[in-house]
Amino acid sequence: MAKKTTDIRKIVMCAMFTALICAGAFIQIPVPPVPITMQTMFVIMAGLMLGSKYGAASALTYLVLGLAGVPVFTGGGGITYVFRPSFGFIIGFVFAAFIAGYIVEKANNFDTKTIAVAAFAGLAVMYVIGCIYMYFILNVYMGLEDRGISFVLMNGFLLFMPGEVAKMTLGAVIVRRLKPVLLRT
């Protein structure tokens, strides 16, 4: 019976993190071509709190809701969102949550070092996917040849790093305190 209770609790938490990721899209600083939002903190927290499977499921649910037309993305929703330079980061959310959760699952303990490594590894995966996607959308789909690697790295990565470090630190502190309480078996 304990296993079933744990699964139900994780499913509810998965839905809660999907809602937080949705809300995080609207807590933003508009910076072209990709706005600064709180989503990354909630995505990584989902992986850290729920593990690889449920963390990735919460981010995937967000992605599917947006593609289905529910206006949960920073600029609305719908299938045409795949042609925006920022969509690669949304794809990266799924992998980021998975990686962060996987590292925490495989670790022997849930200490600050493990949380930090997991959070920044997930973030790195998201940024690699997001920047590659941004490069191809800007240069291949939109035909903006002047948007090379240096433009993408500056506007899709470096611009965000100070805020990401702050968000990952805050998220790690929250997770470190909440996970033992919320997901007790």
Write up what this structure looks like:
The chain is mostly helical. The protein has one domain: Arp2/3 complex 21 kDa subunit ARPC3 (Orthogonal Bundle), CATH 1.10.1760.20. Helix content is 71%, strand content 2%. It contains 6 helices and 2 strands. The protein has a two-stranded antiparallel sheet. The chain is globular and about 50 Å long.
Task: List strands and helices in order, with pairings.
Layout (H helix, E strand, L loop, with lengths): L1 H23 L3 E2 L6 E2 L1 H29 L19 H20 L5 H30 L7 H8 L4 H22 L3
Antiparallel strand pairs: 1-2
What profile does the largest beta sheet have?
2 strands, antiparallel
Low-confidence stretches: none
Q: What would the CATH topology be?
A: Arp2/3 complex 21 kDa subunit ARPC3
User: Per DSSP, what share of the residues sits in E-state strands of 2 or more residues?
Assistant: under 5%
**CATH architecture assignment name:** Orthogonal Bundle
* Secondary structure tally, helices: 6
- Helical content (DSSP H or I, runs of 4+): over 70%
Q: Which CATH first-tier class would you pick?
A: Mainly Alpha
Kindly report how far apart the N and C termini lie: 10 Å
According to DSSP, the number of beta strands is 2
Q: Which structural class fits the helix and strand makeup?
A: mainly alpha
Oligomeric status of the shown chains? single chain
Q: Gyration radius, to the nearest Å? A: 16 Å
Spatial order of the strands forming the largest sheet: 1-2
Average pLDDT confidence is 90
Shape: globular
What count of domains describes the coordinates? 1
Q: Secondary-structure element sequence? A: HEEHHHHH
